[in-house]
Amino acid sequence: MTVLSLGLARGVVELKAFFRERDAVVFTFALPVVLLALLGSLISGVYDGTAVTSAQYLAPSMIAAGIAATCFAGVGTGVAADLDDGTVKRLRGMPLPGSAYLLGKVVLLLVLGLAEVALLLAVGVVMFDLSLPADAARWATFGWVFLLGGTGCAFLGIAIGTLAGSERAAGAVLNLPYLVLAFVSGIFFTPIKALPEPLVAVGSVFPLKWMAQGFRSVFLPDGILSQEVVPSWEHGRTALVLSAWCVGGLLLCLGTSRWRRRRDG
């Protein structure tokens, strides 16, 4: 069997295992949805010269945050759990190539990410009258932002998950940087130009800011560009930054991943 077929088969196993854990399913999908519903209900107002409300501006950013939570923190914690219970060690004995195991995780995150997006879009449409794009070009933009952003976050999560000492430690190690990045990336600021310039500079280094900007370009009209840091969606720069994080995350992942805990010898 090829690495691709092994990876896809492993992805199916990952999905079955995930959806059997009801608590994990609920909490994975609930947090971004609850945050969007609460924050969107608390903020109000319409931006000058547009028909875009503050809640509608928040929705695409929360979609990016939901994908990052699933792909970065969720997948990273899952890898740490696989190391703790010996799953990865047993797979290695089959033997299963490390690349196939990583591909299985990517399949898992893509499916979970799409499910997260569907839920958040449902909240945005039903509660805040968010309009879905009608042209194929915007959906194409959604596709490459989702794939590049989600894959880059997943590789980083896997790398950190393998370095963490345990599943419990991985949860703390992954959630802290995720929350910090959510703030410096302007996820909870409407509009992002209200974010202090030093924080904008820091957030621009990381993928979450660019994912949120890319999704805003999909679901919001171009008239809202007056509320962005620069009056452009910067699709070229977004693709470049997200691609760089995919490559860098993969190299970091391959360089740090191991099949057993150090305590196991």
In short:
Its main location: membrane. The protein contains ten helices and no strands. It has helices at about 5-20, 20-40, 55-85, 85-90, 100-130, 135-165, 165-185, 195-205, 205-220, 235-255.
Rg estimate, integer Å: 19 Å
Global mean pLDDT:
85
Shape type: elongated
Q: Which stretches of 5+ consecutive residues score pLDDT under 50? A: none
As a percent range, the share of strand residues is: under 5%
Largest sheet: none
The rounded distance between the terminal residues' Cα atoms is 30 Å
* SSE order: HHHHHHHHHH
The helical percent reads over 70%
Structural class: mainly alpha
Report on the structure:
There is one protein chain. The chain is mainly alpha-helical. It has one domain. It contains ten helices and no strands.
Q: Which structural traits does this protein have?
A:
265 residues; ABC2_TM; transmembrane helix; single chain; membrane; mainly alpha
Write the layout of secondary structure elements.
Blueprint: H1 3-20, H2 22-42, H3 54-84, H4 87-92, H5 98-128, H6 136-163, H7 167-184, H8 197-203, H9 207-219, H10 235-256
Helix pairs in contact: 1-5, 2-3, 2-5, 3-5, 3-6, 3-7, 3-9, 5-6, 6-7, 6-9, 6-10, 9-10
Protein name: Transport permease protein
InterPro entries: ABC2_TM, ABC2_TM_bact-type, ABC_2_transport, Nod_factor_ABC_transporter
Main location: membrane
